[in-house]
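Submission checklist for the structure archive. All mandatory fields must be present; incomplete records are returned to the submitter.

[x] Identifier: TnsA endonuclease N terminal
[x] Organism: Celeribacter baekdonensis
[x] Residue count: 259
[x] Sequence attached
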Amino acid sequence: MTRKKRNYSDHIEMVKDNDTWLYAPKTLPKMDEIELGEIHDVLPFDGVRNPSSRSNSSHKVFIPYRTEANNNMPKVGIAESAAEAVVSMQYLMSQDVYDLHFQPVEVTYTDSEGKPRDYTHDLLVTFRSGHRRLVFVRHEGSLQKPHTTRDIQEVIAATPEDAADDLIVVNANDYTRQRRENLSRMYLLFFDEDEEADTLVLETARRLRTLYYMQDLFPHVPISQDRAFQACYRLVARGLLHANLDHVLWEYSQIGVAA
């Protein structure tokens, strides 16, 4: 009797490379950085290092931005992580900031194992007062390691004194996923100016005794709900209204007038 050909596959035949013992994402071959061509009426990225090559562990973010230093002409910025991107957005929405540069300064230092390393600072912020600040963004897990603390001190020592007036370390874990999403939406709306809507919403918020949720404002402002909603985002970004940014910022969010 002829043996019938089986019409199924053994499990082992369906196992593909890296499926059985895949404890970490498969390492992908390194790709070249993305080189943007010339964009009409947009200033190019001017960092000393292009951080846009492929990574298994971080998001590379291209950011269009404007500063008074460039006469508000659009410019391209590249951030090496989502946290670094929203930190830059938070600075760019501040009325105290005059200019901002991504990947501004590269230094060579000796790491905790005695090996020479190159490090590029994440951001350089220039305030209207003239004060210049370098910003070092790193996740909490890394910041808690003793060798990271030593490396930061070595980076500070290797940075030329004329590069900035001070340096701060930002814990990326302070920027939860929801906070990053809220700040990203704020950033998009912040530069879509609507002074009339902002003024009406803020005046209403200041006099409304029953203000608890954002939606409480909508029946009391003589503009569309869409304009009032966007105004709330801009007012929170400017610090004139307060809200919990670690929760979704929407019409059922608790908001209040900042002191």
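[x] Structure attached
Curator remark: Residues 8-12 have pLDDT under 50 and may be disordered. Helices lie at 11-14, 82-92, 140-143, 146-158, 177-190, 195-207, 225-237.
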